[in-house]
Each structure stands twice: as C-alpha cells, then as structure tokens.
Amino acid sequence: MSITTVNTRPIAGQKPGTSGLRKKVKVFSQPGYLENFVQSIFDNLNGQAGKTLVLGGDGRYFNDVAIQTILRMAAAAGFGRTLVGKNGILSTPAASAVIRKHGAFGGIILSASHNPGGPDDDFGIKYNQGNGGPANETFTDAVYQRTQEISVYRLVEGADIDLGRLGTTQIGAMQVEIIDPVADYAELLESLFDFKRIAALLQRPDFRMRFDAMHAVTGPYAKEILERRLGAPAGTVVNGTPLPDFGGGHPDPNPVYAADLVAAMADPALGLSFGAASDGDGDRNMIVGANFIVSPSDSIAVLAANYALVPAYAKGLAGVARSMPTSCAVDRVAAALGIPCFETPTGWKFFGTLLDAGKATLCGEESAGTGSNHVREKDGLWAVLYWLNILAARNEAVEQIVRDHWRRYGRNVYSRHDYEGIESAKAEALFSALRQQLPALPGQIVAGQRVQAADDFAYTDPVDGSRSERQGVRILLDDGSRVVFRLSGTGTEGATMRVYLERYVADPAQHSVPTQEALAPLIALAEKVARIVEMSGRDHPDVIS
Ligand code: VG1
Ligand code: CO
C-alpha cells in the first residue's frame, strides 16, 4: 500500500464550536480545507491502527464528496475498517449507536445539523469517540491547535467507492463496509420501548400522527420505525426523502421553521393528535399536540416524570441532566423523585461523562435535544417514541399530559429569543458591556425587578474535573426567574445571540397566560441590561421558540 503525503499549510479559523466545525460549503471545498481538519483529527488519535471507524452524515450537499476524501485519509491513518452508512447516510444518533454496537474506535459525523444545506449553505464535521459521544473540549482544542501548525496530510490513492451498494471493498489495507444506516439503530430503539402498545395506538382510527422529517436525514429512519415496524399508516412521515439542500429550508424543528407542522396540528379538518419533527441530522425533536406546542424544556421534564411507563427506564432513573439555559422544570421532577439533577454547559459533549459514569439516565437541552444513556448523542426519534409510549400508556392527549404536569410541579414558563447574524464586532461589544456590569448588578432593581445574582456560568465536570469557563451570562432574580445570554457556537455567519427567559409560575390559574406575555417583565429586563436594540441594531428577535 502506498501512502501519498501532500504538503499543506495551516488555514485560519478551523476552531470547532458547540458541535464540531461548521462552515459554508464554499469554505469547506477550498483545496486542503477538509483534508487539513481531518488530518488534524487523526494526528490527535492514538491507537487506531487496525481498528474500526464509523463514517456518515446527514446527506447534505458535499456529504458524498467529503466521504470519499475521508475514506482515503482513514486508510492512510491506519484504520483497519470503516463502516459507512449506505449513500453516506447516518443520522447523528444512529452513528452513535453504530459506534457503540460495533465497538468502533471512533466516528466522523458530517453534519451542520439544523443549518441550511446546499452549495451556498453549510457543511460540518465532528469526531466522536469510542463511547459514541462527541469528543470533549480537550480533544477539540488539541485538534484546533494542530490545524494551526499542520504541514502535511496523508492519503491512499484509489478510485471512488460506490456508496450506494451494501458490502465490503478495500482502500489500501483498509476494509470499507457499506452498511444499512437504519438497522442497528431501529433494533436499539425497539429494545427500549413498548412497541406492541405503541403499534396498537398508531393503528387506532381516532389517533392520527404526523412526523415531519423536513427533507432531512430522519426520513428513512422514521419510515422504517413508525410506518414499517409500528404499522402507522403510509403517509404518516412527510418530507421523508433526504435532499442535499433540505428542499431549500432550515431543517430546524421549531415553531418558525416547522410552521407547516404547527399549522397542520392546529387544523381540525386534519384531525391530528400527535405531531413531531426532527432536524437535519436527526438528533433534535419537536413535539406538538393538537394545537399545542410542547416546550422542549417541559418535554424533558415530562419524560423524566413518566419514566415508569417506559420499559427501558421503569426500574428507575439514576439522575437527570440539563444544559444551563434549559428551564428548571426537570429539576423539580428530580427533586420529587429524589435523584440528582446536573447542570452542564450547552452542547451534548458535556453529558458524556455523566452518562458513562452512570450518574445521569436522561438528558435534555432547551434547543429541542433530548436523549438517554442508550447512545451518547441526543436522539430525535427516541424522544418521539418515548412520547408515543407515554401517550399509549396514559391514553390522554399531549396537552392534557403537559397541563397535568404543570398542576403537579408548577410551570416554568420559558422562551428563547434568537438574534441571528449580528455583526460579530457588535455582538462582542454587547457581551463585553454586559460582562462589565455583572459585579454591580446583585441588589439592583432593573425594569422593576430585583436582581439576586449575576454571573458568567462556569462548570467543573464532576467526573473528570475538567473546567469550562464563560458558558453564558446569567441574571437571577429573587423569585427564581432567570435571563441568560449566550453567543451561539454553531452559526456560520456573523454572531447569533440567544436570550433565554424563564419564570416559575406555581398557581394553576396562571398557567394559560400566553408565554410571551408572562415573560414580558423579563424581556424588558433583558433589553435594559444588555441594551440589545442599541448595541445590536435589532429591535426584535429573528426566531422565538
Ligand atoms: C445549539 C444549541 C445547543 C445544541 C447545539 C448542537 O448550540 O443551542 O443546545 O447542543 O446547537 O445541536 P449553539 O451554540 O448554537 O447555541 V445540533 O442539533 O446543531 O448538533
Ligand atoms: Co442536530
């Protein structure tokens, strides 16, 4: 086998964000760009010789081209075998499942998740470790470091592999095995939930479901699991064929980008009782009842509270975990169950140690991410099946289940306001002004409310002791309300600021007050403290979820 060594030079800006490196396709397709980053990953591995790599992505534009390059480089890096999803497809949770099931050394997932795809839009890449989870910050920092000093990358020359045919071929000394991207994952989910009961629900004439795959990766997974294995009527899955540009949309399951689903769920003529959607790479979920959207922060709390109804979790939860900006609804469930609730920085990579150590069973993020110890990624279809399992067991509507939950635990009214594509310099100025005020804020009355504490969230991982600073500015009020400010680490254009708003309402008589109305005082406080209009030049958020 002959390895070709290609001279290269460092390319600026290859710093992984919340979930891998995400850039425009035009950036990724520059000569050496992908190669430099992949070589920098491989240069930080130790002991991969002869071992298995898992490779696949969400099917977006450039996915197939990148796979051919990565295969040649993986062969040169000494991997013994690479498992590739047919047609280059592997949803993020399926990749995690495949890594774990086959005892792989690690995996490379090609995705920019909820970001749009196509020649003028986004591409992304991230490395997952042998536990199936995203590499930690120590690793991604080392990769970035390597990209700044790299001088060569290596590959094994050869013809392109036919990604559309199952079976095994060879590049140099490495086997390339094209696998069914759905089978291992579907089998895993089937082992967790009460499929018989869910099937009976899905076949009832008075229960109608819609799953919107948003032209992204979950189409084939949802069709296999919901329509084939569980017998939901054909057509339950809509927009079910993965397209390289996701049909021109944002594959982001929120009320703005999944407006079609929300409208369908509010249309009495369609008679839909349960709606769900997932994102580009299949790790997010949106849950909608008849004319009722479930807030992702409530969703994780409801899943935790109903653990006893789901076979895989019925024996009990070891603990739960949520990202810091996620509402404290799940904390209340944990307190009632007498189990720990961990608060981590944003991004699934921070849950990995807790899951591996058996400290947390369920994890959730406000950004429509929910998952468990069955894999090491958040998992969109898993959340949908968990909800179906609850609905089948309780025989109540989605809205009824959530309202009942609020009556029992109180309601953590919650919303996130996103300001997308702000000029980076303006966003930085806004945050530095905000950070400067933090020491003086406690005790002050702002927009009529007393600030109790204000800080920049920092986290020490309770398992490995690693430290992460500057993970979001928090302003906490006396009554437990919070406003959190963060800059997104997944965008590719300018800066996206996220403002997270939360207020706890115990009184059931107040539970139906519209969310934005209930949060109005906090929205005013956020504006007052951060001077959003003046500093960002925006007078309203682009997306409210
Ligand atoms: C966003 C979400 C975060 C999520 C991350 C990756 O990050 O807020 O909760 O883990 O996306 O999800 P940020 O840095 O833009 O706020 V995915 O589905 O894009 O892999
Ligand atoms: Co995603």
CATH topology of the largest domain: Alpha-D-Glucose-1,6-Bisphosphate, Chain A, domain 3
Which ligands, by name, code or SMILES, are bound? alpha-D-glucose-1-phosphate-6-vanadate, cobalt (II) ion
CATH architecture of the largest domain: 3-Layer(aba) Sandwich
- The rounded distance between the terminal residues' Cα atoms is 53 Å
Strand order of the largest sheet: 2-6-5-3-4-9-8
Computed Rg: 23 Å
The DSSP helix count reads 18
Low-confidence stretches: none
Structural class: alpha/beta
CATH superfamily of the largest domain: Alpha-D-Glucose-1,6-Bisphosphate, subunit A, domain 3
Rounded mean pLDDT score: 96
E-strand count: 27
**Overall domain count:** 3
What is the name of the CATH class of the largest domain? Alpha Beta
Q: What share of the residues lie within helices?
A: 25-40%
Give a quick account of the main beta sheet: strands, pairing sense, barrel closure.
7 strands, mixed
Taken from the alpha-carbon principal axes, the silhouette is globular
Instruction: Assess the beta-strand content as a share of residues.
Output: 25-35%
Pfam family, one: PGM_PMM_I
Catalytic activity: alpha-D-glucose 1-phosphate = alpha-D-glucose 6-phosphate
GO cellular component, one term: cytosol
Keywords: Isomerase, Magnesium, Metal-binding, Phosphoprotein
